[in-house]
């Protein structure tokens, strides 16, 4: 499982280019930062208070108790960091200035609807900044395992309460890379461990296969 | 010059059972700990608390840098002083879900950016804000923090969610540095809600980590105008790991 998540994070890291300003969610999305190519500069937005997240603090000598990330973890800031208050931080997001957000999902619908914040009747956590990010960022990239213990997560329609409507632009799983288009979900890359039939069976909507379908790029 | 300095206990003397307070901070980073401690000493109950989250419980966050005591709003939760929390995230401090489960605490969730704008609208005289965030979600269909229906507006063919200003009896804020007039700045990620909550409540109380005389520092440092600050409390410490 850990290997599959690493595969997804590695593949997602290839989405970004020099100069990009992005937001990585907690969990698998955070791992994406570890695989960004070393020769490009990507600036990560931390919605609790700054742009320019550096590594997590492990050596107490590096600790500044005034710098945490959105998971409450003490981190370092890059020299190009800009600190901000919550209004400015989400102004950057809603204004469309943060190019992409990478998040997990419970359900993604064929039209790009996303549900990733609440299961009615279960322990409640809250949306935090996820709704703002999904509405504001031009690219919403979902990184997740393709199914939940065999149950479909990519569906005709979400059954859970939405995080945002028609926001998802790309889905990266251990099986495939998919783009959400007006016509439906288009598979652009297929992992060699899987057949088209297996990916289709693990998906709750009729997939469209790109004419130039490529092997999953995870090296 | 008017003297705004009070002790922590004097500063919270007017906080009564059932009042609404705003507390700056994000997972307690930037929360005014000495004001939370003063509220605990006062023993006030049935508060409605507006903040990003429920602060931290003792032992959080996991790892080497865990807090030994509850922090920020977590201190109020530990002492069962809160009936209603209005926040964007209630998943970190385990006291929250314990108290939701036993029925002693209820919550209203507001998206983080929207919560900031609701505070800002209250502080800066706006009738509310129009945001695309929350359309098509429970934020559109659920009632707001005061039980009012949400309103969707269509303007020039585009839909927006109308979000009302949010106000409180008190705003409790933790600057890193302030002068005795109340001008202040918050360092790094302690800014969070400590900027937008100033002036959003009937009374704004600050507990700066460092307090200087007026004129002792370059006025260009200040992020928030001292005119928004009613009371200054001394003694807030840098957070110790």
Largest sheet of chain B: 8 strands, parallel
**What do the pLDDT scores of chain B average to?**
97
Strand content of chain A: 25-35%
Structural class of chain B: alpha/beta
Question: What does this protein look like?
Answer:
- The complex is a heterodimer of chains A (219) and B (241).
- In chain A, 17% of the residues lie in helices and 31% in strands.
- With 219 residues, chain A is an alpha/beta fold.
- In chain A, a hairpin with a 3-residue loop joins β12 and β13.
- In chain B, 20% of the residues lie in helices and 24% in strands.
- The model of chain B has no long low-confidence stretch (mean pLDDT 97).
- In chain B, the strands form 3 sheets. Chain B has an 8-stranded parallel beta sheet with strand order 1-14-12-9-2-3-4-5. A 3-stranded antiparallel beta sheet of chain B has the order 6-8-7. In chain B, strands 11-10-13 form a 3-stranded mixed beta sheet, with no helix packed on it.
- By secondary structure, chain B is α/β, with parallel strands linked by helices.
- The longest helix of chain B is centred in the middle third of the chain and has 12 residues, at 112-123.
- At the A-B interface, α3 and α4 of A face α5 and α7 of B.
């Amino acid at each position: 499982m850990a290997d599959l998540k690493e595969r997804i994070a590695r593949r997602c890291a290839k989405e970004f280019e020099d100069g990009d300003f992005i937001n990585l969610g907690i969990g698998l999305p955070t791992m994406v930062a570890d695989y960004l190519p070393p020769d490009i500069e990507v600036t990560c937005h931390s919605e609790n208070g700054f742009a320019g997240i550096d590594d997590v603090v492990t050596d107490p000598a590096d600790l500044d108790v005034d710098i945490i990330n959105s998971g409450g973890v003490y981190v370092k800031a890059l020299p190009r960091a800009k600190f901000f208050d919550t209004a400015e931080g989400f102004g950057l997001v809603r204004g469309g200035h943060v190019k992409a957000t990478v998040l997990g999902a419970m359900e993604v619908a064929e039209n790009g609807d996303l549900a990733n914040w609440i299961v009615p009747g279960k322990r409640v956590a809250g949306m935090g900044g996820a709704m703002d990010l999904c509405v504001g960022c031009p690219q919403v990239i979902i990184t997740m395992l393709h199914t939940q213990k065999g149950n479909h997560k990519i569906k005709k329609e979400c059954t859970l309460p939405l995080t945002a409507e028609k926001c998802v632009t790309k889905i990266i799983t251990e099986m495939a890379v998919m783009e959400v288009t007006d016509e439906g979900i288009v598979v652009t890359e297929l992992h060699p461990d899987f057949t088209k039939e297996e990916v289709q069976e693990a998906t709750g909507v009729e997939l469209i296969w790109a004419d130039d379908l490529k092997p999953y790029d995870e090296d | 010059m008017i003297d705004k300095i009070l002790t922590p206990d004097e500063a919270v003397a007017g906080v009564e059972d059932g009042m609404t307070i705003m507390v700056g901070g994000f997972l307690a980073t930037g929360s005014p700990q000495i004001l939370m401690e003063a509220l605990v000493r006062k023993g006030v109950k049935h508060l409605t608390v507006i903040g990003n989250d429920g602060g931290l419980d003792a032992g959080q966050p996991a790892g080497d840098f865990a807090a030994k005591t509850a922090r920020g709003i977590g201190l109020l939760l530990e002492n069962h002083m809160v009936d209603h929390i209005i926040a964007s995230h209630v998943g970190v401090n385990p006291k929250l879900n314990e108290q939701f489960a036993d029925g002693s605490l209820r919550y209203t969730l507001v998206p983080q950016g929207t919560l900031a704008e609701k505070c800002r609208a209250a502080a800066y005289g706006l009738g509310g804000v129009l945001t695309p965030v929350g359309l098509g979600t429970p934020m559109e269909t659920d009632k707001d923090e005061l039980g009012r229906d949400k309103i969707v507006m269509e303007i020039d063919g585009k839909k927006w969610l109308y979000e009302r200003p949010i106000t409180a009896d008190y705003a409790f804020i933790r600057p890193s540095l302030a002068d005795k007039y109340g001008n202040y700045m918050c360092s790094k990620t302690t800014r969070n809600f400590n900027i937008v909550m100033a002036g959003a409540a009937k009374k704004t109380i600050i507990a700066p980590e460092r307090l200087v005389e007026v004129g002792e520092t370059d006025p260009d440092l200040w992020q928030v105008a001292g005119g928004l600050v009613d009371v200054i409390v001394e003694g807030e410490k840098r957070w110790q790991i």
